[in-house]
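Appendix B. Raw example, untouched.
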Amino acid sequence: MTTEIPTRPAPAELPLLPGSHPSERHAFTHYLGQHTGTTVRLLLLTGTVAYFALTACGELVGSSGVPLVLRALPLLPLAALVWRAFLTSDPHRLCLLALAATFVLEVGIGLNGYQHAQGAQWVLPAYVIVPLASSVVWLWRWDFILAMTLCALGPLPLLLAEPTLSTLPAQYLLYMSVTLVAAVIVHGLMDDILHKHFRLEQQLRERAYSDDLTGLLARNRFLELAAARLAHSARQGVPVCALYLDADHFKQINDRHGHALGDQTLVALADVLRHHLRPLDLIGRVGGEEFAVLLPGLAQDEAVAVAERIRHAMHGIRLPDDVLTVSIGVAAQHPEQTLHELLATADTALRQAKRNGRDRVETAGAEPVQPA
């Protein structure tokens, strides 16, 4: 069957390694843990220091109906939460720690305002600061809504305990309403910025990791992933084979028909490789018309069968005066063999295929076999 030469490559799809994230959602969660963890920790630390300052100021500016020891007691769980936050990088745990700290702060602010000589109004700014300052640390919708609910309901016990201050509920409703609206705006902007930055990084990473013409893995990315896959296969005790593939007489294609057709031929070649290989196989463009493939879990005879199917499929790529042919070298990994040694062995088999007439599959050290 004839393969039409496409004019645009398919987008690159980065293979997944053990421990990598299987979806964009998980990848974004990992990204959040890397980029927002420091902000969460610093804000928890700032909140703890600010609560200490609030308690100290409350003691200096007037007497309170709540003993100092009880008002200072929230510092213990706050310090424990800060310490725990510095020991984890999981964004879900960081959010739970931040929610717990918000609850403790709301309780502590109420203790500092209850039966204070300055009245409950003096802690009202603290109630307002918490939701606005924390709006940047909530990573998802559920934690933001829960945190804002805690902040909105936190002052209610103090309001109910001070029924004689008739203007306090009105002040609370005014200040808290403005604060919550501002918190929603700030949180929305931060969420939008994080998503856009994440997608931009993903696009830049794909462009850096992928070959611009074929959409396959670029050389350095292929070598990086192949080394990790090889180490994983060694730990699992499964065989690994490598293919080294080269388009025959590619320079003549460029010289006779122009580089535009040569580029389209490489794109078509890459599409054939994608079609005949598994999702777990790694495919990289490692040279001008040279490609490398890593086949985890296949023994050498199975890898040779795969290479033969690819070689036959390349004949479906029609050129103006011929069909495309490729030469392929196959190598199976030996114990303790490094990736570079494995690829060098496959490259040796490729050169052997070239010497034996091209359009064939050879294995390193094997006797030449006439292609079927």
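End of appendix B.
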